[in-house]
Amino acid sequence: MDTELVELLLIEDNHHEAELTIRNLKKSKLANNMLHIDDGEEALDFMFNEGQYSFNEGKVFNPKLILLDLKLPKISGIEILRKIKKDPRTQNIPVVILTSSNEVPDIDTCYNEGANSYIVKPVNFNDFSKLIGDLGMYWIITNKQPNPAMEI
Q: How many CA atoms lie within 13 A of 98 on its CB side?
């Protein structure tokens, strides 16, 4: 996939939950330009054009939406959120925390670091399916974003 076309970035290390999310986004016709990454370090490499993604020097990638889990290998979701929201090139990208954590400190930290939404994953499959469809429709289709600054 051409990384410049990525509209939705799913950062989730649980492959079962990622598969359910992707399936529901496809059902809503929102997964055509989606990329799934399963570790925090790779996610930051993608966002900031580093490591295996360092082929367009001077650019950052600005998907329309990032769905971000908190518990990730190598670099936590909270650290990813901090870096995205502190960089002027990426700070306007909506970041929705999609996690199983219902812990108040996690919720507070995420909002303090600039999360646009914090959603606890429903246990019920039908509820989860509806949530993902609604979430994608709002953030990818309905929500209007400022023009991304692609150049450094």
A: 24
Model confidence over 103-133: pLDDT tens digits? 999 999 999 999 999 988 877 777 877 778 7
CATH number of 3-141: 3.40.50.2300
All structural domains of the chain with their residue ranges: 3-141
Contact between residue 139 and residue 119 where contact means Cβ atoms under 8 Å apart: no
| Other Cβ atoms closer than 10 A to 77 | 27
CA distances from 42 to 17, 24, 96, 116 (A): 18, 24, 18, 22
Over the stretch 42-65, which tens digit does the pLDDT of each residue have? 999 988 888 888 776 666 777 888
